[in-house]
Design brief:
Blueprint lengths: L11 E2 L2 E9 L3 E9 L5 E9 L1 H4 L2 H14 L10 E7 L2 E7 L3 E3 H8 L7 H19 L11 E2 L8 E4 L4 E3 L6 E2 L21 H4 L6 H17 L9 H10 L5 H4 L5 H10 L11 H15 L5 H12 L1 H23 L6 H4 L58 H30 L7 H8 L1 H24 L1
Antiparallel strand pairs: 1-2, 2-3, 3-4, 4-6, 5-6, 7-9, 8-11, 9-10
Helix pairs in contact: 4-6, 4-10, 6-9, 9-10, 14-16
This protein binds adenosine-5'-diphosphate and magnesium ion (MG).
Magnesium ion (MG) binds next to loops.
Length: 474
């Protein structure tokens, strides 16, 4: 597999233009990118590319493909949507919906100084994670059989909350469906972040959905108390704690935590999967009941407000970076003369010929690598190379809208002709008045009054001008 080691803003992957780097993880990099369509349309997406260092490893490549194939089949508001799996000269990339938000990890760091996440907000977030995870766990194949998908890397870095308060689980990179996809076994490599691994992940490696419930328990315990239940001075000590020791009871750390909630989270943290929640749906139900008992109803909007207020400058910074990256991309596009940018089109309502660009599919079923050898869109007369972002708009054809200079010339000619007609009419009226020009009886009455004639001529002229300008506008 080839590697695109020097990917940078302005480069294109298939139909997408890279805007800016977002994150670099263990096996992949995440970028903000955009799909550019006609009439100033653009859609921001996130693109995940495999890191050059590991791209030559067939095991990782298979893992990367597994992520795309599995995650693309999950349809849930709390699981990030996979839009497309692309292949640029052998470089695989995953296109995802863009999450305008941040991770629970960032949120946790920030709330340390602001007194933690308020309980009702935390419960809403926890309930949403359960819902998204349950949808993943319940994924079925075409025959309706469970594929036994397990995320295997539930951690604060892999759960995002949008600034509108919507939870999105990301990174199904080590997700595995029993016996169906590539075995995620890479020598010497422990998948997932150690402090969030379940006891069975550390030992037998035989996991089911209850392993994710354990990891979610760790995430919730940490977010609620500010302390990790198992973290030791070294990875080895952390692993030992996960395998052998019960965490400090939550209510000893945070006495205000409702008893039921402490019990629910501690149940998720049981060493034996049989002692945990059976599935995320029952965990979610309990969390929702606790939320009702607390009596402070919370909406996604409240979660969003809390996230924005807590992250403050981080939100502004992230959005500013993206806005700047879009502006830069717009100016690159103008410099290449690829038509109008999203910002320049505002206020311009001229009719445009359809550009024939392919719209972004809303969903993507049965994901297949997108080959760059695909034939170009039929309706486009001059198709761009597949590796370039599509132009914003093609130049309007002359038949539809004349070029401005030709239009001005025509206007001048028509005005002159009208002036000539007016002069002729006035001349005729004057000649008729003076008795030089013989006129029929009915017209004679009209022409007798020179002022009335001029008024009529003026109205005639205005009507003509209006019709002409309507014709030109079309
Ligand atoms: N769809 C997305 N929209 C915006 N940011 C994202 C998206 N997916 C991931 N990220 C950001 O990139 C980081 C790494 O993504 P992830 O999929 O977890 O990759 P890795 O496999 O490297 O851990 C996330 O923690 C998050 O900050
Ligand atoms: Mg990750």
């Amino acid at each position: 597999m080839q590697i695109l080691s020097d990917l940078k803003p302005g480069d294109t992957l298939g139909r997408y233009e890279i805007l800016m780097p977002v994150a670099r993880g263990g096996m992949a990099a995440v970028w903000a990118a955009r799909l550019v369509g006609s009439r100033g349309f653009q859609k921001i997406v996130a693109i995940k590319t495999m890191l050059p260092e590991i791209g030559n490893d067939p095991a990782f490549e298979a893992m990367f493909l597994d992520e795309a194939r599995l995650a693309s089949r999950i349809r849930h508001p709390h699981a990030v949507e996979i839009v497309e799996l692309g292949d640029e000269n052998g470089v695989l990339y995953i296109v995802m919906e863009w999450v305008d938000g941040d991770t629970i990890s960032t949120l946790n760091k920030q709330v340390r100084s602001t007194g933690g996440v308020p309980l009702p907000i935390l419960l809403r977030i926890a309930s949403s994670i359960c819902a998204g995870l349950h949808a993943a766990h319940e994924l079925r194949d075409d025959e309706g059989k469970l594929v036994d998908l397990v995320h295997r890397d539930i951690s604060p870095q892999n759960v995002m909350v949008s600034y509108d308060g919507i939870v999105k689980i990301v990174d199904f990179g080590v997700a595995k469906a029993t016996g169906r996809l590539h075995e995620t076994r890479v020598v010497g490599q422990l998948k997932g972040k150690i402090p969030y691994l379940s006891p069975e992940q550390l030992t037998s490696g035989k996991v089911d959905r209850r392993s994710d419930i354990f990891s979610l328990g760790v995430l919730l315990y940490t977010t609620l108390s500010g302390y990790h239940p198992f973290r030791g001075r070294s990875d080895a000590k952390t692993m030992e704690n996960i395998l052998r020791f019960a965490p400090v009871p939550l209510r000893e750390l945070v006495p205000d935590v409702p008893f039921d909630l402490a019990v629910a989270i501690e149940r998720a943290l049981a060493k034996d999967p049989a002692d945990r929640w059976n599935d995320c749906a029952s965990f979610q139900r309990t969390l929702d009941q606790i939320a009702i008992a607390i009596g402070t109803p919370v909406t996604d909007g409240d979660v969003g407000r809390f996230v924005r207020e807590t992250l403050g400058d981080i939100v502004a910074e992230r959005r500013k970076k993206l806005a700047t990256a879009i502006q830069l991309a717009d100016s690159r596009m103008s410099a290449r003369g690829e038509g109008r940018t999203a910002s320049s089109i505002r206020g311009d309502r001229r009719k445009q010929a359809p550009a024939g660009n392919t719209p972004l599919p809303a969903t993507f079923a049965g994901i297949l690598p997108v080959s760059l050898e695909e034939p170009p869109p039929k309706s486009s007369s001059q198709s761009p190379p597949a590796s370039l972002a599509l132009p914003v708009a093609s130049a309007p054809p002359a038949l539809v809208t004349p070029a401005p200079r030709a239009r001005r010339r025509w206007r001048r000619r028509i005005s002159l002709a009208l002036l000539l007609v007016l002069l002729l009419l006035t001349g005729a009226a004057l000649a008729a008045r003076a008795g030089i020009l013989p006129v029929p009886g009915e017209v004679h009455d009209l022409l007798r009054d020179g002022r009335s004639l001029l008024r009529s001529a003026r109205e005639l002229l205005r009507g003509l001008l209006e019709r002409l300008s309507a014709l030109l506008a079309d």
